[in-house]
Automatic annotation (TrEMBL):
EC number: 2.7.7.7
Entry protein name: DNA polymerase III subunit alpha
SMART domains, alphabetized: POLIIIAc (SM00481)
UniProt entry keywords in alphabetical sequence: DNA replication, DNA-directed DNA polymerase, Nucleotidyltransferase, Transferase
Stored SUPFAM superfamilies: PHP domain-like (SSF89550)
InterPro entries given in the database record: DNA_pol3_alpha_NTPase_dom, DNA_pol3_alpha_thumb_dom, DNA_pol3_finger, DnaE2/DnaE/PolC, DNAPol_HHH, NA-bd_OB_tRNA, PHP_dom, Pol/His_phosphatase_N
Location of the protein in the cell: Cytoplasm
A GO cellular-component term linked to this record: cytoplasm
Lineage, opening ranks: Bacteria, Bacillati, Bacillota, Bacilli, Bacillales
First and last residue of the signal peptide: none
Its job: DNA polymerase III is a complex, multichain enzyme responsible for most of the replicative synthesis in bacteria. This DNA polymerase also exhibits 3' to 5' exonuclease activity. The alpha chain is the DNA polymerase.
């Protein structure tokens, strides 16, 4: 029996392209009975490899390749060793070693002898011939050094199994064999396996080039490296035909190694109270908490508490609840706003009285059995929301309490996704960027997109690949590498807490903020039986926290969100108007329209609409509304269902209602009813049949007619897919309501906090600013004299912050705020003198000027920009003098005069604002064209959306989303904006085909179309599009303009010039095009059929192809564009 002992997997992160499932499947097909995995420094793949081997009937050998310091006198002299676990203790040692090297901070980490030796027991040590410690000395003729090294290492451990690896192409075979015999070592055949099939060699080389950030041609594969695929036993026999003993010793390795992993057995964490036992402490805390939560602890509270405590203690989860109670208590002590709850945990009274959740399960009729069910043993799962900027504080506390080796976050992997793999492969192949981007741009960036799917959806993509050998090679290799893990990342929420030190169960590595990462993904963590806690950072809690602070500061009101009235009239008026932009769960356009139809009048309406507004149950929203307003009579399959369904007007909205129906009619316990609910949702025929039979029998036994029972069961089946977790709906609706309440009563605090939460997202910020202004609230521009870091309330208005200005960092803003506290800023010159230009540099000051943050200096922005260089020179002169005199004297020099410039045109001012802020602040570009548009339309988007029939409106294209119809025809959805608001557009295939080339984001257009309200959302179905620039008007005319294109030697590439030609043909217009060939100094004016319409999109694409400085639109009396 031959064993492949030198195998790597995808988890060696771009050092191997072997996908574990495919690797083990092929090994099985080739007849291997055992297979060894030895990824470099990591154990990411150990459990998936172990499981795959069991699946395919192969013995798994679990190993690890380590870098060691070969020579203690020269710690930078490194070597590789490979270690294989003989048994479970050996496997634990591998995890300890992987943990040690995983926490090294060096670029090329290595372990010393002192670090490795303690863990060599129960391991087989293989000293490889490539980069191994022995072979390098043998190669240089230092046999004695090799012997000394071996004697030193062997002398400090009881390990008996040391093997010398040899490969089939090793020229030192005789020398190695002699050394092994002289030193009592066995040799083992070691053929590297980095990729699966012989044809995968090129893709492997590209993966390695991507890993190293080089071009593949600079790191070409050596001849022997092309043989590093999974060879068959026959190929191994040929390769090692002269080293049969080495081949036989691969079987020895398999016989020495036998690891049985313990999977699927819970390993619960422990909370160790100062005194007493966990179950008793939990009971005491619950009794105390119940008296705090309820004025009177009645029988209902006591009985529910007893029932829950019985299940929790019986299932062994007391420690789990105590751990959560403890870190939630810590969060509250630190003044954190914690969420009301999330998921089914909100149905637990124990969680409520422990203040883990803030939703009363008795008041809202929530079921504990939906969370924990003693008849369905599963781990508890309490997800906790914290303000997103304080989540790490709680994780740090937990780590401090339980110890670094007992707490870790969960690893995830960033992969070579569809668009990314094309870009990475193209770069490694050395292709020109325009070739790469041609292909990449045709791949949608939607989640779950694959190369295969993208190709099936795009004829243009298929054409690109077929017409170019470069694109074809790029695509083929990208397909081979797609989905491989590229780098590690951290799971958004998962934190593992373990009673045992984690490295005994799973390897760890360095993470963020001093918290380790598991070398296992969430699925593997669950297989190992470890319990994860979800610490979620919720932006909306940060929002609420900030709003409460602003309200206290500016309204002198200490708002207690837990005790706001849930029947507030102003809040429901706001909700009924759909005025819920910025309100958690309720801000999508569709949800806002639904709210205007529903006109909620009670908190339960919010809970229901949050549960129903999803694909599937959405169709029952109108039924709910009709029932609420008694448009029709509500009928029930049986009158006994009315108490359960009355609150939702006859509609089964929640999973808990299904459980209650099963309990009422069929006599199921709530635990049994939960099993029924899960069985129906999984749609397993045999289980469904058993449940149906039990339900009907139970109902008949309870006195109901069989036909009624069958009808109700069918009803349950229908709604089981749609039913929502009521506990979660109530908890999250609480956050929705709290935000709506603040928006209704404290709008300035609401908008100020909202703006600050999205300052980095220009599109969202612009949208919220527009709504705020339309609601009548003033937004003041940024100001170096008045703005804070982010947005602030100032004199019943909102002041724009400085941080949202591009190229103005936190350090610069903090310096500006600190300096102005000492003395107000007077002008540009005194401003520049007061700062270190490394902190507040030229670029940041330019952006401050362009954003309008220096308008208080009473100079036009053009003048400020023109005077900036002189101001910075003056500042340097002043500081040099102060340094020379030790700051004892003031420089008696007059500040320079401003270098006056022509005032900026409105359009220029707006473009500067967009450059600095990401959007237009003081106006909208379309406003400058009002005069030329007056003859064709005077309608704003806001007005147009109040009309019916044909409308004509002008605006800026904000976004374009392309899709395909069921027939495969391209069409698009778009958003158009003007000074009034944004509006949605639909371009069906016929209209889209006419404008696809020129209809781009950032273009100003006049559109004509028909208002559509058929889907209860207002959209304009576009029939005609005209560029605003094409309208004949002196301001926008391009008469007498010429487009000059300079062709540099580096750009004289036939395929690139073909792209330039295509752009000109795609943007036909009136402007002549002139080519200037830099190498020959020749100027050529193109024929009139190449005349172009120089839109912003057209110019930006040409600049990308030829270089920004090589594209100039010149017109007499104007600046170059």
């Amino acid at each position: 029996m031959i064993v492949q002992s030198h195998v790597y997997s995808e988890y060696s992160l771009l050092s191997s392209t072997n996908r574990i499932e495919a690797l083990v499947e092929k090994a099985s097909r080739l007849g291997y009975q055992a297979l060894a995995l030895c990824d470099h420094h990591v154990m990411y793949g150990a459990v998936p490899f172990y499981q795959a081997c069991l699946k395919y009937g192969i013995k798994p050998i679990l190993g690890l390749e380590l870098t060691i310091q070969r020579d203690e006198d020269e710690p930078h002299t490194l070597a590789l060793i490979r270690l294989y676990a003989k048994n479970e203790q050996g496997y634990a040692h591998l995890m300890q070693l992987a943990t040690l090297i995983g926490h090294k901070e060096e670029k090329h980490p290595a372990l010393s002898r002192e670090e490795v030796i303690p863990y060599l027991n129960d391991l087989v040590v293989v000293l490889p011939d490539q980069d191994g410690p022995i072979h390098s000395w043998l190669q240089s003729g230092q046999d004695e050094k090799a012997r000394e090294w071996l004697a030193t290492w062997r002398g400090q451990t009881n390990v008996a199994d040391w093997l010398l690896g040899i490969s089939g192409n090793n020229e030192q075979v005789e020398q190695v064999s002699l050394f092994s015999k002289q030193n009592g070592l066995k040799v083992i055949a070691s053929h590297p396996c980095y990729f699966l099939e012989e044809r995968d060699a090129e893709a492997f080389g590209i993966a390695r080039a991507i890993r190293d950030g080089v071009k593949a041609e600079d790191r070409a594969l050596r001849r022997e490296e092309r043989s590093y695929f999974l060879q068959s036993p026959e190929q191994m026999l040929t390769c090692f035909k002269h080293e049969r003993e080495a081949l036989e010793n691969t079987q020895l390795l398999a016989s020495l190694c036998s690891v049985q992993l313990t999977l699927g057995q819970p390993q619960l964490p422990k909370y160790t109270p100062a005194e007493g036992e966990s179950n008793e402490l939990l009971r005491q805390l619950c009794v105390k908490g119940a008296h705090l939560r309820y004025r009177e602890v009645n029988d209902q509270v006591r009985e529910r508490l007893e029932k829950e405590l019985h299940v929790i203690t019986q299932m062994g989860f007391s420690d789990y609840f105590l751990i959560v109670w403890d870190f939630m208590r810590y969060a509250r002590k630190q003044g954190m706003l914690t969420g009301p709850g999330r998921g089914s945990a909100a149905g637990s009274l124990v969680a409520y009285v422990l203040e883990i959740t803030n939703v009363d399960p008795l008041k809202y009729n929530l079921l504990f059995e939906r969370f924990l069910n003693h008849e369905r043993v599963s781990m508890p799962d309490i997800d906790i929301d914290f303000p997103d900027h304080r989540r790490d504080e709680v994780i740090e506390y937990v780590q401090g309490k339980y110890g670094k080796e007992h707490v870790a976050q969960i690893i995830t992997f960033g992969t070579l996704a569809a668009r990314a793999v094309v870009r990475d492969v193209g770069k490694a192949l050395g292709l020109m960027s325009f070739v790469i981007e041609q292909v990449a741009r045709e791949i949608p960036s939607t989640p779950g997109m694959t190369l295969e799917k993208a190709l099936a959806e795009s004829k243009r993509l298929a054409a690109l690949i077929n017409e170019s050998d470069e694109a074809k090679a790029l695509w083929q290799i990208a397909k081979q590498l797609e989905g491989l893990p590229k780098h590690t990342s951290t799971h958004a929420a998962g934190v593992v807490i373990s009673a045992r030190p984690l490295p005994e169960i799973v390897a760890l590595q360095a993470g963020q903020a001093g918290v380790s990462l598991t070398q296992a993904t969430m699925n593997v963590i669950e297989e190992l039986g470890l319990l994860k806690f979800d610490f979620l950072g919720l932006r909306n809690l940060t929002l609420l926290e900030r709003m409460v602070s602003l309200i206290e500061e500016h309204n002198q009101v200490k708002l207690d969100l837990q005790n706001i009235p849930l029947n507030d009239e102003e809040t429901f008026v706001l909700l009924g108007k759909g005025d819920t932009t910025g309100v958690f769960q309720l801000e999508s356009p569709g949800m806002r329209r639904t709210l205007t139809h529903l006109k909620p009048t009670e908190f339960e309406d919010i809970v229901a609409v949050n549960a129903l507004y999803r694909p599937g149950p959405m169709e029952f929203i109108q039924t709910y509304i009709d029932g609420k307003y008694k448009v029709h009579t509500i009928t029930y399959a049986h009158p006994d269902l009315e108490p359960i369904l009355k609150g939702t007007h006859g509609v089964i909205v929640y999973q808990e209602q299904i459980m209650q129906i099963a309990s009422l009619l069929a006599g199921f316990s709530l635990a049994e009813a939960d099993i029924l609910r899960r069985a129906i949702s999984k749609k397993k025929k045999e289980e469904l049949a058993r449940q149906r039979e039990a339900f009907v029998k139970g109902a008949v036994d309870n006195g109901y007619e069989a036909n009624v029972a069958i009808e109700v069961f069918s009803l349950i089946e229908r709604f089981a897919d749609y039913g929502f977790n009521r506990s979660h709906a109530v908890a999250y609706s609480m956050i929705s309501y709290q935000l709506a309440y603040v928006k209704a009563h404290y709008p300035l605090a609401f908008y100020t906090a909202l703006f600050s939460s999205v300052w980095h997202n220009h599109e969202k910020l612009a949208h919220h600013l527009r709504e705020c202004r339309s609601a009548g609230y003033k937004v003041l521009p940024p100001s170096v004299s008045h703005s804070d870091l982010l947005f602030s309330i100032e004199n019943k208005a909102i002041r724009f912050g400085l941080l949202p200005i591009t190229h103005v960092g936190v350090q610069a803003v903090e310096a500006i705020i600190s300096e102005r506290k000492k003395k107000p800023f007077e002008d540009l010159f005194s401003f520049t003198v007061r700062f270190d230009q490394k902190i507040v540099n030229k670029k940041s000051i330019e952006q401050l000027i362009k954003a309008g943050a220096m308008d208080e200096f009473r100079q036009d922005r053009a003048t400020l920009l023109k005077s900036l260089d002189e101001a910075l020179r003056f500042a340097i002169e002043v500081k040099e003098f102060q340094e020379e005199t030790g700051g004892l004297f003031t420089l008696d020099i007059q500040a320079p005069e401003y270098d006056q410039a022509e005032p900026l045109l409105i359009q220029e001012k707006l473009e500067y604002e967009k450059e600095a802020l990401g959007f237009y602040l003081s106006g909208h570009p379309i406003e400058t064209y009002k005069a030329k548009l007056a003859d064709v339309t005077r309608v704003t988007i806001e007005t147009a959306f109040t009309k019916t029939g044909i409308v004509r409106v002008a605006g800026l294209i904000v976004s374009v989303r392309k899709i395909k119809t069921k027939k495969g025809e391209p069409m698009a959805f778009a958003v158009l904006s003007d000074e009034s608001q944004e509006g949605e557009l639909i371009l069906f295939p016929q209209a889209w085909q006419k404008v696809e080339i020129t209809f781009k984001e950032g273009e100003l257009v006049l559109i004509e179309g028909r208002m559509d309200q058929s889907k209860e959302r207002k959209q304009i179905i576009v029939e005609k599009v005209v560029s605003v620039n094409s309208l004949s008007n002196e301001q926008g005319s391009v008469q007498d303009a010429k487009l000059f294109l300079r062709i540099t030697p580096a750009r004289e590439h036939p395929k690139l010039l073909q792209q330039v030609k295509q752009q000109l043909l795609d943007n036909k217009g009136q402007v002549p095009v002139v080519l200037y060939y830099e190498q020959t100094k020749q100027t050529k004016r193109l024929l009139a059929n190449y005349n172009v319409s120089p839109s912003n999109t057209c110019l930006s694409i040409l600049k990308e192809l030829l270089g920004k400085e090589n594209v100039v639109l010149r017109k007499e009396g104007t600046k170059d564009k």
